[in-house]
Structure formats: C-alpha cells, structure tokens
Amino acid sequence: MKKSIFLLLGFTFIAGSLFAKETEAFPYLMPEEKPDRPLSAAVERNYDYLSNRPAQNELFTQFKYTELKGFDYNDGDGTVTRRDPSKVIFANGKYYVWYTFRNTGHKAIGMARAKEATDVIPSADWDLADIYYATSKDGFNWEEQGVAVPRPPKPQPGWRSVTTTDILVWEGKYYLYYQAFMEASGTRGDFCPVAVSWADSPDGPWTAANKIVIPNGAPGEWDQHSIHDPYPLVHDGKIYLYYKSDFDTRPDKKPTKVRMQGLAIAEHPLGPFKKHPLNPVINSGHETTLFPFKEGVAAIVQRDGMEHHTIQYAEDWVNFEIAAITELLPIAAGPYIADAFTDTRDGRGITWGLSHFTNAAGDWSRNHSILVRFDCDLSQDIHDDQLKEHYIKFSPEFHYSQGLSSQQLERIQNENKVLQESARGGGT
Ligand code: AAL
Fold this sequence. Notes:
Elements: H1 2-23, H2 41-46, E1 64-67, E2 81-83, E3 89-91, E4 94-102, E5 130-136, E6 142-149, E7 161-170, E8 173-181, E9 194-199, E10 207-214, E11 228-235, E12 238-247, E13 258-266, E14 274-275, E15 290-294, E16 296-301, E17 310-314, E18 321-325, E19 334-335, E20 347-357, E21 370-379, H3 396-401, H4 406-424
The chain binds 3,6-anhydro-alpha-L-galactopyranose.
C-alpha cells in the first residue's frame, strides 16, 4: 500500500513538473545555457551559436572600410585594375600583399566579347593580368613593389593571365598559388586551373613550377571548369587549400551558375593535392576567405549562395556550420592572419586585411577594381563593442537608389488595373 502511494506521489510530481515546465512562459532573463524545456525551432537554434546574443558572439562582427593610399588607378579610366588580394603576411619588418594587376593600356571589353580580345585588349577585368605585390608599415599606406609573378610564355599554364593569388609560407619558403588562364576569360567561361611559383624571399625572385597543381575536375564533376581563389592554410601538418568553383550553369536561371567552395589537401606545397571527398565543403560564397579559429577554421561567406552574408565555422576544417549572420562583408578578402601557417590548435582570429571593390567607378564602360582595407573583430584577443553592433542604418536616399525597375512598375500598375476593373465589376 505504502509503495503504491509513493509511486503515485512520484508520478504526480514528475507529471506535474513536466506540465508545469510546458506551461511556464519563456523567462524574461534568457537562460545562458539551453534550458531543459520545450523550445521552438528558432530558440533551439539560437542556442547553437557561440553565444545567444550577437554582441557576445566571437564570430559575429561588423566591418569598417578605409581607402588605401599608394595605388594609382589612372584616374579610374578602366585601364588599370588591382583586385583579389592575397592574405597579408608580416616579414622583414613590414606587411606584404600580392594581387591581380592589369595595365595593358586598354579597358576590358567584357567576357561576352572574349572573341574580340587581343594580346593587349582584355576580355574580363582580370584578363591579361600579372601578379604584383606591395608592402606597408601600417596596412593603410602601401608601396607597390612591382611584378612578382609575370605571365609565363606559351604554353606554360597562365600564359594568358595569372590572377587571384594567395600566399603560403612553408618551411622557410614562400609559395604563390594563382589561377592560370590559357584562354581569354569568357571564351568558354571563366575556366582555369591553379598553378604555383615559389621563392626564398617574399621579395622574390619567383620560380614558376610550370605545372598545374590543382587540376580541373573530370568532365561532369562539379569543379570541371574553374578552380578559383586558391587559399592555402596549414593544418594537421598539411596544406589545406580551399578554392571556389562555378558550376551548374543553366542559362534559364538567375544567376546562371552556382558558386561553392572546395578543399584540396597536400603534404608538400607542390602537391600532389587530393580533393576532399565531401567537396564542395561550403555551399555559398564568391571567393574563399578563411582563418584558423580555436581548434577549427572560420570562413567569411559573402555575396553568393543560400548562405551568403554569413560567417561559418568548421571544428574539423571540413564540415561548416553558420556561426553568425552579418552585413557589408568584405569581398575577396585577404586577411592578415598571424597564425595562418603555424598549424595552430588555438587560432586567434583576425582583425583586418585587404579586400576589393569591383567596378569601383560604378561604370561598366571603364570597369576596374580597387583594393581597400577592412577592419573587424573576429579575434579572441580583442573585444571591440563598436564592431559588435548590428543594423547599419542606410539612408532613405540609399534605399531609394535601389528603386523599382520599369518592368516592376508596369507589373504593379497592371495588378492595380485588374483590381480596379474587378471592383467596378462588383468583385471584392
Ligand atoms: C574573382 C574570383 C576569380 C574569378 C574572377 C577573378 O572574384 O572569384 O578571380 O576568376 O573573380
């Protein structure tokens, strides 16, 4: 008898407490840890982030931009472009950056007119380019040093254009990976593999390996046409090289192609690189920008794809999850990452780097890109409240500048007309 009473009391207590939990409103002071109670999917998800508030989320940040000094763009006439900066490194007491440089005395005529391109008239903004480099003492004022990797002679990979480079420092040597075009971009598409050059000093001289180190995929594979934005980091004693590919091109869709990021791993800078079987490893983004963070790697995922405008994180360097959603992200960013090549297990994160603005003049007839500095707080070593704010207030004028097209206005007016006609006809 006593036992059954205890059992009944116990059951009542459990049922009561469960019922009580279900009926209690979510508390005013949000629990720091996920509470043991029924939660909506959205609140469940809110506890998956590094913090349940953006300002305390180490992988949330806003970005601040500063115009750089030291680069001449020929009054923005479209004949000179600098774009797709590498990561920034610090050596010999100064910062170094490498980037795509075009200056053939002509403006780009556009990828659609690639067949009219010549050996001085570029098709795309990055056609007929070389890899240049610059140095700086403060990251704001830069001194262009000149060419690092010129286009090699035919038939070496990159004879048409060498672009979109990134730097690896490995066992005291320097390696520049870059897109190696062997046709004017736009001829078939933005098609290219990746090649590499190396040097004993960041000031060169650079020796081209004269071989493709990241080949295009086989016909029918996602990365069969383009291996873009090579981006090496050191992890687990190996070279983890992330890259982008454009694929699933369907002219009837807008945009006509999908952009995702892949990973290739090697034990030596000249390869062989083995593509990861789970490629693509990031489902969005337009260029690759990543940095070691704690034991994993973080990625700035901007511009394209279902998860653009996010900062993502992969503890295993392969399986990425959204860590934060943010705004005004740097395009084609090359961060300064002090521990990019140290094989760290406690990545400290980033606070600045260079990125670019394409079509900087807002005039496609003189299309050119410019380099810019960005600053952020994606670092374990600083906490800048101003960079942890959110909701950049764009002016009414800015919003009006994103106005309706004539087609959209016409659609709306037709809808109004149909409504008014149905009203006259007695419709509701
Ligand atoms: C960039 C990068 C690659 C593309 C082109 C130049 O943003 O994705 O380098 O080929 O655009």
